[in-house]
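Minutes, project check-in
Item: structure for the 358-residue chain
Input as provided by the requester:
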Amino acid sequence: MDSISLFCTGALLAVGLYWFVFILGPAEQKGKRATDLSGGSISAEKVRDNYNSYWSFFRRPKEIETAEKVPDFVDTFYNLVTDIYEWGWGQSFHFSPSIPGKSHRDATRLHEEMAVDLIEVKPGQKILDVGCGVGGPMRAIASHSRANVVGITINEYQVNRAKLHNKKAGLDALCEVVCGNFLEMPFADNSFDGAYSIEATCHAPKLEEVYAEIFRVLKPGSLYVSYEWVTTDKYNSENAEHVAVIQGIERGDALPGLRSYDDIAEAAKKVGFEVVKEKDLAKPPAQPWWSRLKMGRVAYWRNHIVVTILAALGLAPKGTVDVHEMLFHTADHLTRGGETGIFSPMHMILCKKPHSSS
């Protein structure tokens, strides 16, 4: 190959990489670029080891039921995936039903605003975001309701990301982020005017334990709404395909075990809540929530090429490729769960703490 051909080939590769990373690479909300991918609080050279450690958790099933083991497992997961989520999905780590004529971002925002509308808070009141991630929902809810939102996440890296995004959005006066375990929250009894969790309490080994903590910190008469990940009435535990899909979702999303839809209200009542309303927001006439995953398959392959190149160049941790591939397979399981109707990520339950509680 002569020097001119070599130069042209090199230039084309450089332009192609720039196009992949800087034009197609940023997330919907420009908060993370491919060149900034990391392992969260995990040092780059330990990302692959932590990824292998994460997978080994599922080879020790007894630990999945041990509450003291799960927080570290979930923390590791979010160190591994937070940057990839932000880069490839956006700042709201959850699903929402598709809305004809609306963008994914608008559909997500409306889904979040509905949560705070359900708990009927007023401007200036203090509400709790249980499992806030990097704070996408928190910012949408604070902007919509003008309530003061306190978010809690177990992952310190997410706390720092959320604080950065809050400041950039000009919402840091309304949004506070705390690092902590939602099974042992550092908040006083009866201190919040309302609470919500959006696809977060699925990480709890026992749902009643996190519900009990939320119940404790809510003021009497206050409302709490949760969008829960569940298996539906269509799930058949004797169907091998169903079992494989659900186990794939559990392994790829750091879940100690998916619950059945009919366990949710029971857990809420057990800790003292009154159940005001319960509805699977994924059921028709809602449009498919998984359509975004199917539409994103081309983006996945584009992103996987970027991650592989960046890892080969030493610009991203080598374990990032493994994590990205895991999330792709998980997306397939999620899509199949939605198409078959055996899984829902948005089983909504609205609860009230009775006025008689103290």
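Outcome recorded: The chain has a mean pLDDT of 89.
No further action items on this chain.
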